[in-house]
Amino acid sequence: MQDAKTIRISLLGCGTVGGGVLRLLKQNSAYLASRVGAPLVVRKVLVRDPTKERDDACERGWVTTSAEEVLSDPELDVLVEVIGGEQDAGALIERALRRGLGVVTANKLLLARRGPELLDLAVQQGTDLAFEASVGGGIPVIRTLREALTSDWVEQLHGIVNGTCNYMLTRMREDGWSFEQALREAQRLGYAEAEPSLDVDGHDAAQKLVVLAMLAFGARVREDKVPTSGIRTLDADDHRFAARLGYRIKHLAVGRDHRDKVELRVHPALVPEGDVLASVSGVLNAIRVEGRALGPCLLSGRGAGAMPTAVSVVADLVDVARARLAGVAGLATRGIQMETREILPLQEVLSSFYLRFPVQDRPGVLAGIASALGAFGISIEQMFQTNPGKGLVDIIMTTHQARWGNLENAMRTIYNYDFIAGDIRFLPILRDESAS
Amino acid sequence: MQDAKTIRISLLGCGTVGGGVLRLLKQNSAYLASRVGAPLVVRKVLVRDPTKERDDACERGWVTTSAEEVLSDPELDVLVEVIGGEQDAGALIERALRRGLGVVTANKLLLARRGPELLDLAVQQGTDLAFEASVGGGIPVIRTLREALTSDWVEQLHGIVNGTCNYMLTRMREDGWSFEQALREAQRLGYAEAEPSLDVDGHDAAQKLVVLAMLAFGARVREDKVPTSGIRTLDADDHRFAARLGYRIKHLAVGRDHRDKVELRVHPALVPEGDVLASVSGVLNAIRVEGRALGPCLLSGRGAGAMPTAVSVVADLVDVARARLAGVAGLATRGIQMETREILPLQEVLSSFYLRFPVQDRPGVLAGIASALGAFGISIEQMFQTNPGKGLVDIIMTTHQARWGNLENAMRTIYNYDFIAGDIRFLPILRDESAS
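^ Those are the sequences you sent over. The predicted structure of the assembly is below.
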């Protein structure tokens, strides 16, 4: 075994987050050593292209293109994985855990797909797998769920966990932009990829929700089972209508523990203007956790970006290094219980809704809609109509609480009415949760 | 030494928080044992009045009125202090630390007065002193400052840390109540004491700020050196005027690291309506920390109350118990560096301001105020006047950034003008920090 008074780490990947981690390690080396009880020493940094310009904090001698060289290092203590993706990262992390190394990762995709299995492996091997940076960038939500709420029962959580969607929705609301305009600007600023589906269709948020559900509800669930929708169909009018009703549209990840089943869903929703979540603008993320004893607790901050994410990686690294040095690796993951949980079918979810019907402006239309809703047991809370006299108008409604399946059936019925002039929009409303 | 596979704890105090702790320990005993690695067993509960009705979770056999009996218990591992106050609690905690016991406390007063000294003692004795519950009830702000921001430099923090003030300001704004009305209602609801000075004059917030500054800035400062003001002088008109300008009035604890000195202050301030802090209503607390690398991070939730506070106490208890069991007590406090720091004199603080001048409604008044402000280098950003034609009017202004000392001098000059018809009000404005 190596010198007991040094913790040796290697990085898989040296992109913006990896560079940020190396910079923080360099800038704060003395302080980190005092917190850990020993210096943190970098051994190797795995990269694909060794000729590429790297962060100044990355020394040439560390760089290698050989994963074998990194993983077979007999002196390695902790592996930091910041390459992302499932296959390679998964194989390398698994190998590191099997060797009993500590692992710190920012890889939400891998955790959403293989989190419980890898955590089990870490517990089995008596080592640590830490992943604060996988959800919410620099926001310490994993730590809070894992540690602060140890004695509490997490009843529900609501999160704005995708900064790209939140940025785009903010611009659409504030500047009256279309989805396409907002997307182009997000791409120009580097907030959205050229192929934006992962963000704007909600898959990134669904992956993060699966990771959160693992800790909040002890639920092992499959990402592809989470009902997920994105923000493509929204337009600036929806934002105006929501504002008129006293709401803002946010893209949310929602989780609720029903004991037998777990409710998980990702979609845009109307949030009351007075709710703190409504004020979370731009690329910021926010996650509200509601514990039975704790009540509501909101965490908000930069959900992505090199430095916030790097701060979370280094915080994990300090924990893992410290536990290792003290000979108590695996302490933090011990006792996290997860079991396979069924996801509550979306049709059974209860919610109030925002409805938007593009209709021909003629008598009897409202009566038709109202009676169809009534037939499915859905009652209208308020409604208004736009642009009367122009031939086509929008009828906007909010409903009292209804079963999602009933609402879908009512929408299908109404869609066949001859006065309907386009796609019907319906969005759930976040209610009675404005307490934080 | 006792059986290594049990952690024995005793409580000092069994009020609402103590009762909540015992309830959580009872309800979650199996889960907590799996997280800790050993059962948590209660030995003694110190109370003043043994005849008083206690929480059901408090067993009769535990209750004692003898501090000696609790502290001399040779099998004790961790002491939980929830009696509050400085003298008795301080003496008992010091004695426990000297014995090498772990200590968990919710006592902000004690920490504000003796925190650094007691932390030093804990480090010296190789044991833990944990105090998450001392600030922000169930909000994991201490944990976040201590762990999540390990590699970051905390530049500033802003907190709504007194729920009583926040509740009262919320009612004054929403319902047009006077300070006295809001106070009576807060007292009726149990949010304020019969003698409310600790809350409404800002001392409670100042104590919490001192604890936060200890972790955020590594600053040892004396609570009585923190410039502190409360909410007594505010009235419903101030809330209306602030709203007209696009702000809400919040009672804030503010800290900023100036390297040589540390800026700490407690006072009501105007917060932009779009800022998340503005949406934190009622008894909720919120703390925004800004790290150099992390950017802004906001934590919000119930800042007081038996169960949220108990959740924080039990989270600390799990940490302390786990470290003890693993033979690594003192690990978490290691490396926290604190040094005596001078507080930046309030006169040197830069801020923009809200000003309210009650004046006689006659020509030349505005010119007089404006020229006095100009003479002190203070420039007006916007202004409006109320109720013209009634003899007495209010002139409301906001200023660009100015030095606090200059503003005070200008106010002293203007106060002597013969057209001034009452007390001048000035409040700082929170600016350029609406990012979270």
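Chain A touches chain B through 64 residues (CB under 8 Å). The radius of gyration of chain A is 24 Å.

Shout if you want it in another format.
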